[in-house]
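dude i think i finally got it to work??
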Amino acid sequence: MSATRTIIDLAVSGHQPDAIEKAIDSAIRLRLTSMARLTRRMTDLAPGRPGIRVLRELLFDSGGESFLERRFLALVRRERLMRPLTQVNYTANGRAMRVDFEFSDGNVVVEVSGRLGHTTDRERQKDAQRRNSLQQLGKTVLEFTTADVMANPDYVIASLARSGVVATRPSPRRSDRDREAV
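look at this
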């Protein structure tokens, strides 16, 4: 059975959303499926079936390759920012690089860094070299940690705004002035 079909079957059979999220993220990371394929097959195989609504909601924040990337996409969606491209490839200084997110104008690149893969001196050196290469291409490179995304989302959103990332439509939240008047 394909990874795409397995994910759909997990949703239809009522598995917990976090298990379905992990399956989606793993299948995308391993290149066993894609967002387009999942959406197409979901429409073909399971229209109106139980669990499909949950799967559709989970797909809103899919496209990353990890829990942290999914949470970043959820934050972007909640704040009504333009959805970034995910897992974008570049070549610079003779090396291939893949970044977590690139916003639509192509100038702002975002990396989210958890504890895995960013702890040794060699891993940090590779991260710094990649960041330098991207900056030499004229990119604004923002890096957010797990703590930033999970515990300090206002910092993340403010940093994105200062770098020119714009909202798709005004947020329904009241302005600070409206909150003060209450």
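The chain is about 50% helix and 15% strand.
im so relieved honestly
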